[in-house]
Design brief:
This protein is of the alpha+beta class. Helices cover about 40% and strands about 15% of the residues. Strands 2-1-3 form a 3-stranded antiparallel beta sheet, covered by helices on one side. Strands 4-6-5 form a 3-stranded antiparallel beta sheet.
């Protein structure tokens, strides 16, 4: 008997309160992610498309729009190194530091691209605005 795995599996970390969304591979079973989450001390929840509603779904859709954009690797590396050094920062502080004036909108797109490609992480259960806290993910 084959059990269909929901397309979205999320893990909620006790340490950071972040929501991680991932696509399971073909052969992946539900017990493997559950066991991994238990080993990490996380609470494991399965959420499929019919249960994801409201702000979380809007944030996932917003992030996916920026996934295929292209930005200079040097700039991305600089942003990631800065966030890594700071530990956690807001979008606004990065914009003030690297994207002043007319470059602000490009900076917003660049940061959202880094979020969409999972090079930066944030809590997608909260509004994505300039005060959104971000960090470099350590789970990958």
């Amino acid at each position: 008997m084959r059990v269909d795995t929901p397309r979205l599996i999320s893990t909620l970390s006790r340490q950071r309160d972040w929501l991680r969304i991932m696509q399971p591979t073909e052969g992946q079973r539900l017990f493997s992610p559950w066991r991994f989450a238990q080993q990490q001390g996380w609470s494991f929840h399965i959420i499929d498309e019919s249960r994801v509603r409201g702000l979380t779904l809007d944030n996932i859709r917003t992030r996916s729009r920026y996934e295929r954009m292209d930005f200079p690797c040097k700039e991305s590396r600089l942003i990631l190194e800065t966030v890594q050094q700071m530990g956690c920062t807001t979008i606004d502080s990065l914009l003030a530091r690297y994207f002043m004036g007319e470059y602000r909108s490009e900076g917003v797109s660049h940061i959202r691209h880094l979020l969409a490609t999972r090079q930066l992480d944030c809590d997608i259960t909260r509004p994505l605005d300039e005060l959104t806290e971000m960090w470099v993910p350590s789970h990958e």
